[in-house]
Structures are given as C-alpha cells and as structure tokens.
Give the backbone structure.
Amino acid sequence: MDTNMVQLAVFLGLTALVALATWWRYGKEAKAGDSAQDFFLAGKHLGWPFIAGSLLLTNISAEQIVGMNGAQNMLQVWWEFGAAAGLLVLAKVLVPMYYKYNCTTTTELLEKRLPNGAALRRTVSVLFLLGYMFILLPMVLYTGSRFMKSMFEPDMSILAISILFALAGLAYAALGGLRAIAISDTYMGVILLVMGGLVTWFALDRIGWDFSGIPAERLTVWGGPDSDIPWPTLMTGMVFAHIFYWGTNMLIAQRALAARDIREAQKGIYAAAALKFLTPFIVILPGIIAFKLYGDIDDNAYGRLVGDVLPPWLSGAFAAAITGAVLSSYNAGLNSAAALYTVDLHLPMVNPKADGKRIGQVVQLVFMLVSLAMVPLYQNATSIIGTLQQLNGLYSMPVLASFIVAIFVRGANATAIRIALVFGVALYAMFTFAWTPLHYLHLMFITLAATILVAVVLGRVMGAPEPPSPAV
C-alpha cells in the first residue's frame, strides 16, 4: 500500500476511534437538569482524571508543540516548569475562592468580591473575548495547519486545513459542550504523550544520543541578555504570565470549575502539574535534535522531524494526536468564549430568560468564523511562541492586576480598577507597537505593577465603596 495511504488510513481510523469512544462515554455520563450548566461546566460532574487530561491537552496544542520546538533551545523549559507554579496558585488560592462564591466564570469572582463589581466583570470578560477571538483561536488554527503542511505536504493551503480544524472543533464544542471536550481531551492526551515520547525516542536514536555540535547557548537553561528568555525575566513577567494563564484564564480554570467539588478539582490540578515536568521531552527536546539534524529551521522543525523519524503508520497516529491537541485548544476556546459572553454579558444585560445553551452555540459559530478570517495574518510571524506570549500581554497583565487588587486590596474600588485596566492595556500596547525598551516579559511585569498602582491610588482618591452584603 502507498505510504500516504497508510498514513491517511491510520490517521482517520484513530481519529474516528477517539470520536466514537468520546461519544460513548459522553452518553454514559449523568446530565445536569440545567442545560446551560451542563454545556458550560459539564454539569459540575467532572472527575479528576478528566480535569487533568483536559488541562494538559488544552495547554499542549500545536502552538505549544510547534512553537516551543521551533525555538530550538532549552530555555523554553521555563514555560513548562513555571506552569507548575501557576497550577499551584490555582489549586491553593483561586479554586477555593471560585467555589466559595459559586462562580460559573472566573470573572464572576470580581463581581462578588467588590461592591458594584458587575461593570468590572463585564469589562474583563470583553478583554478575554477579544483575546480569544483575535489571538488565541486563530493562532491555534494556524499552527495546527502549519504542522500538517510541513509534515505531510498536502495539496491544500493553510487556510483550507484551518477550515477543516475549525469545523471539527465546532462540532465538539457546539454539540457536546465541556463534557465532550474534557473526555476527548483525556483520550487524546494519552495518545499524545505516548506518540510524543516515541518521536523523541526515534529522534534521539537518529543522532545516536549524541548532542555534540549543538551550540552551548541552545542547551543552557540560563538565558543571556539577547536570548529568548533572559534569566532575570524568570522573576518578573514570566511568573505572573503563568499565574494569569493557569489561575484566572477561563480557558483553563473552566475545567476546575466543572469538578464535583474542591477536592476533586485540586486532585486534577495537582496531576496536571506533575505531568508538566514530563512535557519538555515532547515540546522542547525534539526541537534541539532538529537543530543538530537540519540547522535553524524555526517553526518547521517539529513537522519535518516527525515526518523523517517516524515510520508511516506511526506518523499517521501522531497526526491524529496533533489533531486532537489542536481541537482541544480550539474547542476549549470556543466553549470558554461562549460561557463568558452568555453568562457575563447576554443573560444579565440582554435577556435573562434566554436559552443559555443556544446563545452559546451561536457565539461559538461567530468566533469560529472570525478566527478563520484572522489566520492569514499570522503567516508572517517569525516566532509562534514569542508572538503568542507577547500579544497575550495586551490583556493578561491588566486582567491579572484586576484580580490581585480585587482579592488582596482592602476597600478596593471597582470603578478605579476599570480605569486602571484600560490604562494597563494602553500601556502595554505602547510597549508592543510603539516603544520597546526592554524584553517583553519585563514590560509585562512593568504593566502589571503600574496597573495595580493606578488601581490602588485611584481607589484611595475616589474613596472606598460601601462594604458588600454578607454572602447568603
């Protein structure tokens, strides 16, 4: 049989098998009486293995695998090890608060912590929605399509492949909601870990386990001033980027909010944190091996390596695993966007009696169409992982500042935080597009500190609001 036919048969067979297994398990799960809660939070019945699996695969998508391997240096390990710190903050600090206030979205915590916090909640939700629509979702589609293009060289454009990914992701998100997403994530997560490990093993065998000839600066974990990650940034912007991503980002925290109880959520988070110490073998080491084999080929490194070292039937299986990773992040983004818009904006402001599930499905369709339209804009990005992290700063640090002030500053003023939030977005936009005096991770930290300072000072000038009513 032709090699391409073997790859295609294995790819389609494994993808179909996971889909069938997902829907079989989905049918066995108890459904919540509230269709909206079932759609957005899996009826709050997720067990810890599905939480851990979904957390892992939502994070390890094509933009991580392609982008981090594309950097072709060991410095990227800090994005993986630092994730454990962010997950611990989620488990020990934020999850107890989310459950105490019975939050459906992470942004709901802002409203319940502050008097007159509803407007702040809506503002933060809008920032999340803009970030998902214009940064996260198109980047996921583009990187997944670029990987498939570099590995299989199909006679299809990146946009055409993106359309197929988008339609498949929409099917999971719109038909099954978070429950189907979490189940498929877990199954595909196992496959991805196994297949990723095999890629690394075959790649190491290809170079005879010999790393000689690779420049020392690509093997060090302590970055110099001109490196991708200068070592001082580990203590400034990076740690807070992790706290934002793992702790306050609806895309991630939504899994923890869907657990049966706090303990189940924490068990899933701890399991995901432990697995993050294994992922460098999948998302970093192959890129360094690719440098030894091919030189500096940036974000094409992983696709070419996989195509070279894996036998045809295994490369088809790996393509299925990558497809699962792409769909995981994409449908998670669609579901989180739907939850934020429906719960934070539509139901309180437009129609409180609307069918939350139906509204969410419409939102997912809109976000799919817009994200597809944005894909061509990312084809000129020189570094996927660098571009993604830099653009995320436009909303990540101002949003994190809002949570920090709302949680830790006594007598915080919601209106002052909203003004500071707009200031923070504008400040980071200036750093990104007009004046970049330092590494973007340092600028993220400066943005965070400045936003917190403005929120606190303005809050003191405007005066503390009336204390909130006791929780019922």
